[in-house]
Amino acid sequence: MDFASGYGRLTRLLVQEIDPSKSWVTEIQEDAVRFQEREFSVNGIVSTTEPDDFPSSRQFDCILVVSLFSHLPEKRFYQWMRRLYGLLSPNGILIFTVHDRSNAPHLDYSKSRIHYNPSVSEIETLHDQEYGSTHVTEPFVADVISRATKGKARYFRFPKGIWHHDIYVVTGSQELSPPDIGVVGPLFPITLHDGNLSGWFHDTRVGEKVSKVEILRRGEVVDAISAGRTPREMFRGGEAPDSVDGRGVASGANAFYGDERFMPNGWSAPLYFFRWNMVPSSYEDDLIVRACGTSGMTRDFPVWIHGY
């Protein structure tokens, strides 16, 4: 079940892999539910503000909640955690995202491990004490999971797993190991904008790293970027990454490893890459960014060309 699915930003991708007749979407905006039922042939449930009023007794093998807990006040955060965990099948998993405190380090967390701002809301029809903007600490989330599941659940956290959102995976299983899925990259499209291309990749397997990034045009490798200078060396003092023309436009390419202290246990440091001042491209060029791991594993990511 895609819970708080909006108009199907993720649903349209999920139905490419999962039978729509076995997929459910839930959203508090009825128009959004009907739209997804019509366009994606999924099952729909109109949600409620009160978790205990949620109209379903069905059990789900997987419940996905992207960008809801990042908007809930403390009371609702706990209530929805308890309600959704109660809808899982015996071997089910709950996947949800939050805004971690690292996204807003200027806020004061000394008195509370959660910071809720009622004045920031994307849905005008909801009361500001129901939906706002929320930043949390991991101890807060861990405590909510423990209380909502009566200590039965285990969780695993992926910092910045979806753009600026942390991902939490919750299961009733006593054992939960980090996933071993290999090379991964950003959820949002890699974009070529004003001739510049950038992104990040890392390898979830212990001891492995992404060591090189290749750029392909119409199936041919046109550039290869390996880890080199650090961010400090690249940007300090306003110096150009490789070279600067008379207009002050950077050219060339660089890649560097990020700080693995902020990655989940066992994951390698992410490889960040930048390519400046690329030759203009169109969709006909079929641009691909290929992440190459030290073990030989590769994964291709399509490039979205801004302006087309």
Characterization of the model:
- The chain has 308 residues and is mainly beta.
- It folds into two domains: 48-171, 3-Layer(aba) Sandwich (Rossmann fold); 183-305, Immunoglobulin-like (Sandwich), CATH 2.60.40.
- It contains five helices and 19 strands.
- It has helices at 11-14, 30-40, 74-85, 138-148, 231-235; strands at 2-3, 24-27, 43-46, 60-65, 88-98, 114-117, 133-136, 154-162, 165-171, 183-184, 190-193, 196-203, 210-217, 220-226, 243-244, 250-257, 271-276, 288-293, 298-305.
- The strands form three sheets. Strands 10, 11, 12, 13, 14, 15, 16, 17, 18 and 19 form a ten-stranded mixed β-sheet that branches. It has a seven-stranded mixed β-sheet with strand order 3-2-1-4-5-9-8, with helices on both faces. It has a two-stranded antiparallel sheet with strand order 6-7.
- Helix 3 packs across helix 4 (138-148).
- It is globular.
- The protein starts with a strand and ends with a strand.
- The model is unreliable at 230-250 (pLDDT under 50).
Coarse shape = globular
Q: CATH superfamily of the largest domain, called what?
A: Vaccinia Virus protein VP39
- How many independent structural domains? 2
Structural class: mainly beta
Stretches with pLDDT under 50, minimum 5 residues: 230-250
Order of helices and strands: EHEHEEHEEEHEEEEEEEHEEEEE
Helix content: 10-25%
Main sheet record: 10 strands, mixed
Q: Write down the overall mean pLDDT.
A: 82
Query: Termini, distance in Å?
Result: 33 Å
Tell me the strand percentage band: 35-45%
CATH architectural arrangement of the largest domain:
3-Layer(aba) Sandwich
Number of helices: 5
CATH topology name of the largest domain, in short, is Rossmann fold
